[in-house]
Amino acid sequence: MNFKESFKIASKALNANKVRAMLTMLGIIIGVSSVILLVSIGTGVKESVLGQFGDLGSNLIYVLPGDYGAMTGGAGQMTAASSPLGVGKTTFTDADVELINSKLTHAIAIPFVEGGVRISNGGVEQSASFVAADGNITSIMAPDMASGRTYNQAEVTGASRVVVLGSDVATKLFPTGNAVGRPVRVNGQNFRVIGVKNSQGGGASSNQDSAVGIPYTTAQRLLNSRDVSMVAVSARTAEDIALTKTQIKVAMRPKYGSEFSVMTQDQMLGMITLLVSTMTYMLAGIASISLLVGGIGIMNIMLVSVSERTREIGIRKAVGARTYDILAQFVIEAVMLSVLGGIIGIALGALGAWGIHFVLATKITGWSIAVAFFFSAGVGVFFGVYPAYKASKLDPIEALRYE
């Protein structure tokens, strides 16, 4: 009996038990779709964050609260064994920004506060992230404005309740346009829209369309805190970076000792890349446990199938079917279950990633699809071999007498 005939017999056997076959595939479907979905979220978030930092320019130096020294290796790269020990023990305030600026000769320090808010207009409300800075932010990241303007230093000093909307936020809150000058409520407080940014489109910067910009002093009042998330220092030229890093350390070390970190753009991007990649692989590994469970389910059902079809196997062997023929039939059945489950899982995972990208950056990668598919097929082979081997070794006389 050739492969084509074995395939037909396996197909008829699965078709005769559609519900059982679908339930058997469920573990594979869940596992594959989870792997595709989680990897796409992790990849999308990584590219989104890297895109935002990349847009800030190559002459930036980041000053972060906490000791990230164990997380960076040579040439600004992260080590595989890195861990965020010590991170989060300190916080920065406005005084630290002034302290850094007092020591700089060829650069300027810009405070950043990040978080999330609820913003509404009339009966329309949505969540939005914000990145708040002072008026010097335009020196490192010129805003691409569709209308209006960004906030100025006077509004930062006065902690004015003004807001710059991303394009998606503006479209949702003001579907008819003309958002500039209109009032909105941010976390229940009255704000005035002073500008709307142009759409950044898809890809790494897409989530900027769903963000808003406010003065960092205003953000501190909203959060009821004087903390600063980080300080970005913009060196005038690339040649000034080494001197600027030294000046920052001279300013901060007497107060914080080793509980702060100074990173260049390359170091910051390397740290973010490894952190997000590690998280992505960890989540994908957890999701792949479903594939293992699905494989055990396939083996269990195939063993039941062998018991149910013992007499059929005996008849086939009695009329000349070889051990290989019986083995091939049951292996093909197991592989068909896992491959079909893998295909359905890939489709559902891709559909889920497409749906989520409206609220969170996602990117489906070819390698995640290939790994999920071939792993699911391998599960079918691995867990299908034992039941198939058991079926192929049945004695035809004993099988014919089986009831």
Structure description:
The protein is α+β, with helices and mostly antiparallel strands. It folds into two domains: 170 residues, no CATH class; 168 residues, no CATH class. The protein has twelve helices and twelve strands. A six-stranded mixed beta barrel has the order 3-4-9-6-8-7. Strands 2-10 form a two-stranded antiparallel sheet. Strand 3 and strand 4 form a beta hairpin. Helix 2 packs antiparallel against helix 8 and helix 3 crosses helix 7. The longest helix is centred in the C-terminal third of the chain and has 44 residues. The chain is elongated, with a radius of gyration of 30 Å.
Distance between the termini: 26 Å
What amount of the residues lies in strands?
15-25%
* Envelope shape: elongated
Total number of helical segments?
12
The radius of gyration over CA amounts to: 30 Å
Mean pLDDT over the full residue set: 79
Q: How many domains comprise the coordinates?
A: 2
Helix content: 40-55%
Structural class: alpha+beta
Flag low-confidence runs: 73-88, 202-206
**How many E strands?**
12
Strand and helix order: HHEEHEEEHEHEEEHEEHEHHHHH
Order of strands, widest sheet: 3-4-9-6-8-7
Largest sheet: 6 strands, mixed, barrel
Jot down its keywords.
two-stranded antiparallel ribbon; about 400 residues; six-stranded mixed β-barrel; alpha+beta
Short description:
With 403 residues, the protein is α+β, with helices and mostly antiparallel strands.
